[in-house]
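User: Hey, quick favor. My workstation is busy. Could you predict this chain's structure for me?
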Amino acid sequence: MNRLTGKVAIVTGGANGIGRGIAEAFAKEGANVVIADIAAQEQATAVIDAITQMGRSTCYVQTDVANEQQVQAMVTTALQTFGHIDILVNNAGIFTQSLVEDLPIADWDRVLNVNLRGTFLCTRFVLPHMLAQGSGRIINIASQLGYIGGREVAHYSASKGGVIAFTKALAREVATRNVLVNGIAPGPILTDLMASETEEWKAAKLAELPIGRFGEVSEVAPTAVFLASDDASYYVGQILGPNGGDVML
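Assistant: No problem, here it is.
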């Protein structure tokens, strides 16, 4: 408990799912949290209430992470509200399914823009502040599909593979300046994103998992707390994998 006392974290895609779980876990450990999400603020009521009930401060900024101006405004709001940013979790992501032969180009562009460009934009506008203050933690949420790919999700897999590569490259740039960059590549987790997948896909995926079940958000959030804390002070460019054995490295 209290491993993040006095810290300020931005969690993108924090209104629901894994992002919400991470935001609440951070607050439980003492952090104040900026929630950035494309959803209207009313859809973030549950996470906002949970954070405030823990005695932490929060602010909500409606943000499309693929939009440069909105991301810049979100980071400015975070700094104006709290004065500093210690942790950035690039969690916002979208998912669609299609064989490549039928994949709408608009779907490719939107998935890559949100999942990969969004990760870059948020990092780009937070990083100078972290470097100036001489400390920071950046945690990028990837996916095990970024390693192994998946039928009907080539665009999603490509975006998450890009997040993994970006994480490792950035980590090499900034680790000596006390900004540590790592990632999390969850397996299939029971969230709204999972609900958008077909029953056929879910059945096939379940059959592949050594653990024999899908994961829970509560099984991912502690990994983010660890990476954000001083306990992870020697972790650089690592991709941790709460994935039920779908990928074993």
